[in-house]
Every structure is written in structure tokens, then in C-alpha cells.
Model the fold of this input.
Amino acid sequence: MENIDDTRVMDEQTLDQLQRAAFGYFAQTVNPVNGLVADTTRENCPCSIAVVGFALSAYPVAVERGWMTRADAVERSVTALRFFRDSDQSGSPDATGFKGFYYHFLSMDTGARVWRSELSMVDTALFIAGALTAASYFTAHTADEIELRELAELLYRRVDWRWAQDEQGVIRQGWKPECGFLHYVWQGYNEAIVLYVLALGSPTHALEGSGYEAWTVTYQWENLYDYDFLYAGPLFIHQFSHAWIDLRGIQDRFMREKQSDYFENSRRAVMVQREYARRNPNEFAGYDEYCWGLTACDGPNDGMPELGQRSAPRQHLFGYAARGVPYGPDDGTMSGWAALASLPFAPDIVLRTASTMLQRYPEMLSEQRYTSSFNPSLPGRGADAWVSTGHFGLDQGILIMMIENYRTGMIWRLMRECPYIGIGLRRAGFRGGWL
Amino acid sequence: MSMPRSIRPHSEAPEDAYERERLDSVRPADWHNPQPAPRYDLVIIGAGSAGQVAAYAAAALGARVALVEHNLFGGNCLNIGCVPSKSLIRTSRVYAEMRNAEQYGVQRPADIQVDFAAVMRRMRGIRARISRAASVHRLVAANVDVFFGDARFTDSDSLTVGDTPLQFKKALIATGARPDTPSIPGLAESGYFTNETIFNITEAPRRLLVIGGGPLGCEMAQAFCRFGVHTIIVQERPLFLPREERDAAQILADSFARDGMEIRLNCKAVAVRAENGEKLVDLISDDYRSTVAVDAILTGTGRVPNVDELNLDAAGVAYDNTVGVHIDDFLRTDNHRIYAAGDACLPDKFNHTADASARIAIRNALQSGHERLSELVIPWCTYTDPEIAHVGMYVRQALEHEIPVKTFTVPMHDVDRAITDDDEMGFVKIHVREGTDQILGATIVARHAGEMINEITLAMVAGVGLSTIARTIHSYGTQAEGIKLAADAYERTRTAAATGSRSES
Done:
């Protein structure tokens, strides 16, 4: 890019259009029979339980913004929650769940496990967070809204978080009927705050011991590019828990000692992304302080030649991967939605960045909705940059929620009213602020 | 002179001039054990790094010293460890740079043919040269009685070498360690290499499976991959080098991927069988099973101490086959006449740790010293590309001890010399006690991290903090400037705190 200031701040109308377009994903990919929502718009894509959680959180936003009637939102939410209530919880290889947890990917039609996927603790947590969001919003004394709240309560109470703890008390990442618990454990800061808060706040199977402390002891507090922050490379880690939990001004033990909080930390993560993009150590096309967004996203490795890149030297290309700064992986792929989903943390910077990125690479949108990612270092099909095909549910969900939290704080407010969140936060050692 | 035991040089390497020179240094064919002294001030079992250092140090004190070795002088490091592996790694880097020549503005050679026999010949030449410093003859010249044979304790103050009894006032067990072979059904029948045998080959396998993602497995896997061998590395844990920081292990995995290595993390080899001249290895990762076909297998799954054939019970020395000889912080065994040093008793099985522990043992055993093992500051390095070096505490260890810790991180892409050298993959992370400049530890991932970590080690030993490092002029145009940049970042936070501004702004 030449040294011409082509940056501009995104206006309210564009923000509204992007948020509404993101919501369109859920209307497009839901199975109205069982309420399940597809992981992506790609052909024959199964349901992701996390995306269902985002959908359940997005319906109240859609009601408030007039994109959906309250009755439709309740019906869609109840349909999904009923499905999970009645689902096969035997833990067999083609069941839907076990111990109140659910397999990561389910058949859109039957809800049975697909892709030999794992029983996923964090994705179950994102689903439950969505259920509790819906329960906090739909508070009318009508039969269907009462049922919705009871279903959410039942599903939350059924999750046996304690079963998923390892010897140190840390929550395991997954389980499969074929081999038991997976070897992977949560190491370092990641999106698991919402998981721990829900697990600690459970009225039935609350975590025992000091699992949360055992997790935070793996944190890395780093001074990087002159910013002190709790390190995590991909942006989504700095966003997911914040979609539901208002982490402004409240501190756990770790953050008290650092005289910071997780919200401020996410702001600094934005600054670190900007600094990395400004430095652009791999000399990828497009990177600068107003064009960034390295996160977990789709990538161009499938069928893309290594040669033919525009500006960078030969670089290993990745498919769906958790891209991050400053250590990578980084193959020149960015996510426009990931930059915009940091809106609550650094509004001025993010509004200018998101607008500038769209102005420079409008092809990152398809059907006016953010694709998973784009890569200006690689030639696209007639467009300037390679662009991921279709849309991904996680991207749309986080975008709707974070834009809404920026605009009205609605999701945060709803979850502050959910007693389990407060209990979980306090058990994790959070104090101060709205707590 | 006592009757010599049968001299059987334990080497299967090609018998060229280099090997003849090495064996003449480390196990002379015409060797005859000397007539033993009535009683030695010190008997050392094992002539690896720890044993030789101890022998020289004790002899320099005027002690009557016997050194017993059952195989080759120089131990693992010289014969089957650091020296041969580093020689191979250097050549493998040359091949990697040839393939990536365009990255440096150089035309890539049209036809890169790996002359593996030449690679190994160079290694043997280097090993022979370095063996001169570890030679039997030098020890003898230093007034050390050298015995070849198997040592077995017979009492609390005596042992035998073969049929020859040796009496001692003090003894030092420095018998080192050997490869720990995984118990995989069919592995032994199908044949495999360890670091004891891999350096003897003269022809590269077409396909190699490396079992184990620790330092040895990672170093050799990358080297063979760069020699054009289709290399698969299998690691049971989700990341390589599980002891190291996640980012370091992740960078290494990325580097392996760039080299074209086939990476199988969170994966275990469960069975091996030989069929039609190839080895079929069954792998399992959670619930996914697969089979790979290779021509050779290298195991690098750790090492176990050489303690089980010493008849330690007769000497009243406690031990087990996992930890090795049980020692206290002064390197004493339960029998206070007997000390241990190096791989035979230490969890950190490094050449330099063996050296340092041997020096402590000698001072404590012969000079009434009270030096503690726990006071050592021990760096280490895995010599992959990039290298991964560490010293002191990890963040997790500090937090487990409730020590508030802050890390100053400099990515290598901020270091000018790393940019000019195209060595930007990596970082300098220096951990300090928060609110102070006291260095608790550091991890460096860089092309020459092993060289760079020594500055941090010196600072820790000398009690030098980041402020002093920041005031120390570092030559411009060195990758070690990354350390200075981390110290400068610390200084900026200090200044910001003093002025009430934020370092980030």
C-alpha cells in the first residue's frame, strides 16, 4: 500500500448491515425441525453444537432489532432445546452426547454424532451459554417461554463437569467412546473462561478443587511490542468468553496481581495484532495497522499452489488453523470478522480497521456477509485476494454478539442477570466491578 | 601388570582411518590394565564426561586415582551423542540452505544429490579429532590408572574389575546412561536404530520413522529429513519437547512442516512387523489407527541410567532403574564413601551437567566441600533448526511457587541480524520476578539459541539483572542483540512506572 491515508471509520448503517447479514446465516442454515444449525454453509455440512449456542444467543438480538418475531425466536429456541433434552445421551458412537455433554458435530437431520467427533467440553459450554442467554431473555410467563427456561435449566444441570476433570482438576478437552478422554489439556490462556465459569457455577456438578487455578498457572504474562498482556496468539481467544460474560472491571486472582482485567487484556491483544501487522515480518500483501485479523479460520491450502504468491516468499499454506501472532502460524490469511469482533475493546481502532479492510478487499464479503478469511498474497478467482468459500457459523455468531455488546451491551446484561454466571465467576475468584 | 580382559572395541562403524584413530584414543587395542595400587584415594567408574573431568580434577589434587571403563572413553557425548549428532546437523543445515537458496538471493542448485557416505565420513573425522582430547593416553599421562572392564562392588570400600580387586577410600559412580527402548511388540524382531547405532550407518534409509519427539528424536528427525529421507516423526504427547514452552514447541513443529517432515503428534507406535523388506508400523492416535511403511526405525524415547550391573547392593548404595543412583544434594549416596555424578544419577542428562556435577563431587569427596547440586544454574539446548535453549525456571514453575513472574518477549523478527540472516523464526523470552529485574529463567528459540543462552546463564549465576544487561553494549549485528532488546523493554517499563506513563503508549 502507498502512503496515502485511505482509512475511514465504519458508519452505523454499515455496522447494522453486517450484523444483520451475519444473523442471516442462522436463518439460512437452521434445520427448523430440530433447531440444529450447520457449522458452515458448505454442502452436507453437519451441525456444530457451538454454533447452536451462538444461534440461541443471536435470536434475542434479532428480536430486539426486529429481524425476527419473538414467537419465532422462542419456537426456534425451544425446538433446539427439546431436541437436546430428548437426544441419545448413552455415549455410544452414534449417540448425541454423554454425561450432559455433546459431540462436537452432529447430523443435521438426526442429531447423531458424525465425523467420529469428540465429546467436546468447550463446545458444550458454548451451547449451554447460548441456552442460558435465551433463558435470561425470554422471561415472559407464557407456556412456551416457561418451557424454554425449564429446558435450559435442565440441560445445564445435566452437564457433569466434574466427570471431565483430570487429576489436577483441570477440565479435559474431549472424550471419545472409542478411546476415552483425549490427551489434550488446556494449556495457557484460551477461550475457556466461559467453560470454567459455567462448570464452577453448576448447581449440580460444580467443579471440585482448584481446577481454575491449575489452569491459570499455565498463563504467560508477557511484554510484547511494549504491551503487557496475557498472551494468546489468535484473536478468537480474546473474544469468545467476552461474547457472553461482561469481564469489564472484574478480576480473578491473576488479573488482580497484574492490575488488569480480561477486557483490557483483549484491548491490548488488538494493539499487539496491529503491531504485528505493521511489522509484517513475512512481508505478506495487505498487512498494515489497519488490516489485520489473525485467528482460527479457513485457509487456502487445499489445491492452492505455493508459488504464485504475490509478495511473500514461498510460504507454507494452511487450511483451517488457529492463526496467531507473533509466532504464527501465519500464511498471509486474515479474517475481517475477527477484526470487527474486537469492536467493544477498541472501538475507534476497530471501526477504522474494519472499514478500511472492506474498502480495500470488498471480496472478503459474499452475500454481504463475512467469509471466513481472505488472503491478499494469493490470487483469487477474478478478485484481488483469495477468499474462503461459503460462511462459517462461529464467525457469524461471535460477530453478532460482539457488535451487539458494543452497541447496547445486551448479551452482557442478560448474562449478568443469570445467577449461575455470578456464582461461577465468584468461585473462580473474580471480584469487583459489577460482581 | 594384571592380565588384560579381552579387548573388544564396541563400535560397528566402518573401519577407516578415522575410526582407527578414535578407537586408539578411546579404547586402544593393545591395552593392558595396570597393576592396581593397594588402595586408591578415588576410584571412578565410567570414563565419560563426568568420569574424565573427575579423574583430571582428582589427579590434579595429588590423589591416587583409578578410572574404570567397560566400553569406550568419552562416553555418550563423544561416541554416540553430541559430537556425531552435531556434525550431522551441521551438514543437514547446508542441504536445507541449498534447497532454500533462493531465499538468500542465490540460484538453487539444479540437482541436489545428498552424498550420505560423505556426510558420515565427515562425522567420523570430526569424532576422531575430538576423541584426542578424551584419550586414554592423556589420562595415563595425568597419573591416572586406567582399567578396562566391568566394575562390580564387592563391599563398601572395594570393587572388582574383572578379576582384579580395587580398594578405595572414595568412589565415584559415573556410568552414564543408555537408550531406553520402547517396548513395542515386534520392534526388536524387526530391527531398529538407537543413538548407539545410528551413527554407524553409511547409507541413508529411503524412509525413516522416528519414535519419540524429545530432543534426540527431534534433532535426528530433522537432520535425516534434510538429507532427503522421507521422515515420519511420532510423538505420544500433543507437542514436541513437552518440557519446553508451548510456543517453542509450536515453532519447532512449523519448522518440521516446512522441511517436509510427516508429523504425527498425539500418536503412539503400537506394533511393528517386517514384511517384504520393509517395516510396517501400526500407529494409534486417540481412536484413529493407521499403518506406515518405512525402511528404518530410530527410537529416541529417553535414556535410562547404567546402574543395574554394578552390584550396588554390596556397597550399600540405593538406586533404581529409573532415577539411577540415589544421591543427596551433595552428590553423596547412602554410602558416604561413594558419590555419583552425571547421567547415572541426574534427571538432566546433559554433557555439561555431568561435567559440573563431577566437579562438585570431587570437591565434596576429596576437599571436604559442601557444594550443592541444587545451586547449579543449568542451561540446555535442543539443536534443531531453530535451536531451542532454556535456563532457569519456566513460567509455570514460578507460578507454582507463587513467584510473580513477567516475561519480556522479543520476536526474532525484531532483531536486525536475524532479519539479514533470514533467521526470524523464534524469540527471546526472559522471565523476571515481577517488579524487579531479577532473571528467573529464559527460553530462546533462534538459529543460534544455544550460543545466546549462555549470556543469560552468566547473568543468573552472577546475579546480574536486566538493567545491567540493558546497560551492556552488545555488538550490533549479532542475534544476541535480542537479549539486549528484551532488557531495553524492561527498562522502558521501569521508566514508564517512574513517570506514571504506560510503556505501551
